[in-house]
Amino acid sequence: xxxxxxxxxxxxxxxxxxxxxxxxxxxxxxxxxxxxxxxxxxxxxxxxxxxxxxxxxxxxxxxxxxxxxxxxxxxxxxxxxxxxxxxxxxxxxxxxxxxxxxxxxxxxxxxxxxxxxxxxxxxxxxxxxxxxxxxxxxxxxxxxxxxxxxxxxxxxxxxxxxxxxxxxxxxxx
Length: 173
Prior knowledge:
Blueprint: H1 2-8, H2 12-65, E1 71-77, E2 87-94, E3 97-108, E4 111-119, E5 127-131, H3 136-169
Antiparallel strand pairs: 1-2, 2-3, 3-4, 4-5
């Protein structure tokens, strides 16, 4: 009985039709996934400028709230590191010379908080200005709890990131 099944050769046209049908279904599925991925990439690229503009406005707001005047944000600086997911840097023209303003998400006891720093090539450490979108009372609590840990750490680390960005872009401070 087994010999008879083998000798018949099976149902090749039906098997080819099933494989062809499965291949078409897999192709449609992969096409739908590629389309969704393309739409996500498109929206990410379209939203990039509004994201930069919003962060720039937050930096200006923090500088104004802390009564720091004479700063004008001139352009966005590309940070070439893993830090770009949590930080954005802008070149600043001021009466003190060329500087950078950086908004970075730092971890605190209250969760991640956007902090604003300024830095020039003359300083060893970046200067902490304040937190973005924070109530003054909460901001003071977070600052006092994080002053000697996260705020100080990022004050020391930011100039190193900005120096690599400066070298790679060829811009001089």
